[in-house]
Specification:
Length: 386
């Protein structure tokens, strides 16, 4: 049984996944990025423009494994920071792929991205843990592998301070999550259960009204009074704060060492078997992207915001992106034990039968890359390939 106990939709929620219609790096900050990245070999000599992804030239050089292109998916969301920064023109991922062209696709929901992976519309994707588990379970372990971590944190419970003063005040209120059975929905249902409150997971009705609301419309729902708060990822959480909301709880406070997987990197199993060198190159680019983000947080924030502007039509204002960016941590470690815990939360909520996750991870290539980069290897928490 899937998290939502229903099949993935026949088409993505909202617009169909699309090749990006604009470059990820905005011209306004491009000279800054060139100077910062050029020393690392990540820069581009060409001026940024507004051409579509199909017009983006490969970084040049020999094609990896003779492959013309690799199709990658992600969300236009700060919790997909590795993709936002690493997939820009001339960025570390394209550099690692040489003459093999990156073809990026943007999605609005996890089930849509899993569907695209199943159909071969994408080969690799950044995605949350819940749809990763769901896709793995539904395919009986034959569809995907998690091959790397990406981001930890960046999820908050934001409430209307006039209506909610403490955690106990959540009872009887209307709280939004992004989607039935998605990562934040599972986390909130688990938190409600620990409070001793009862909610029907499917309908969202009970001691708390769980309102499934697309992140794009949640701020408007909050302003109109249709909801009293939301358990949401960044930047939606900081958008609500900018509208007068108050952070009642940062989800990271509920986890050991304040770390939990919010985004990981998955690959279609058949693609991994057929093109391991391409997957290794993407992983190398991902690791180097995360390195650059950690050592250049200000410029990385600007690059991510430029990517969001290219995808959504406008950048995030400082009062939104500044606190949002501070709450996320990029990581190569998939934090596998926390994924296992999140699966347990879904089981307790009644959204998932107890799954066998043995084999969901294949960190062989990631650990090979980490060793080559002089970094410590990471663990699959006993959930590696059988």
């Amino acid at each position: 049984m899937s998290y939502a106990d229903r099949p993935a939709p026949a088409r993505p929620a909202g617009p169909l996944p699309r090749r990006r219609t604009r470059l990820l790096a905005a011209a306004a900050i491009f000279p800054l990025l060139l100077g910062a990245l050029g020393a690392c070999g990540y820069g581009s000599d060409k001026k940024n423009d507004d051409q579509g992804a199909s017009a983006l030239p490969a970084a040049g050089g020999k094609k990896v494994d003779g492959l013309d292109e690799v199709k990658v998916g992600y969300f236009a969301n700060l919790t997909h920071a590795t993709a936002l920064v690493g997939l820009r023109k001339g960025g570390p991922i394209q550099q690692a792929l040489g003459g093999t062209q990156v073809k990026p696709f943007v999605f609005n929901a996890g089930p849509s991205e899993i569907e695209a992976l199943n159909a071969g519309s994408i080969d690799i994707g950044w995605i949350g843990p819940s749809p990763s588990i769901n896709g793995y379970v539904k395919s009986h372990g034959e569809n995907l592998r998690i091959i790397s971590g990406s981001v930890s944190g960046g999820v908050k419970l934001v409430v209307n301070p006039d209506k909610i003063k403490s955690e106990d005040d959540i009872k009887g209120k209307k709280i939004a999550t992004p989607q039935l059975g998605n990562t934040q929905d599972v986390a909130f249902l688990n938190w409600i259960g620990k409070k001793g409150w009862k909610v029907d997971a499917q309908s969202g009705k009970g001691d708390v009204s769980v309102v499934r609301s697309d992140n794009k419309v949640t701020p408007d729902a909050y302003k109109s009074g249709a909801i009293d708060g939301a358990w949401v990822p960044e930047p939606t959480a900081s958008k609500l704060v900018a509208e007068g909301g108050k952070v009642l709880l940062d989800e990271s406070s509920l986890w050991p060492d304040k770390k939990f997987v919010i985004t990981n990197l998955i690959v279609k199993q058949s693609f991994l078997e057929e093109h391991p060198k391409v997957v290794e190159a993407v992983l190398r680019g991902s690791v180097r992207t995360n390195d650059w983000i950690k050592t250049n947080p200000g410029q990385a924030k600007d690059a991510a915001n430029a990517a969001l502007k290219a995808e959504t039509g406008k950048p995030l204002p400082p009062e939104v992106i500044d606190p949002a960016w501070k709450s996320i941590q990029v990581t190569d470690d998939p934090l596998a034990q926390t994924l296992n815990t999140e699966a347990d939360h879904a089981v307790k909520a009644g959204l998932l039968e107890k799954p066998d996750l043995k084999g969901i991870y294949d960190l062989t290539l990631l650990n090979k890359v980490l060793k080559a980069e002089g970094k410590p290897t990471v663990s699959d928490a006993g959930l590696g390939t059988k």
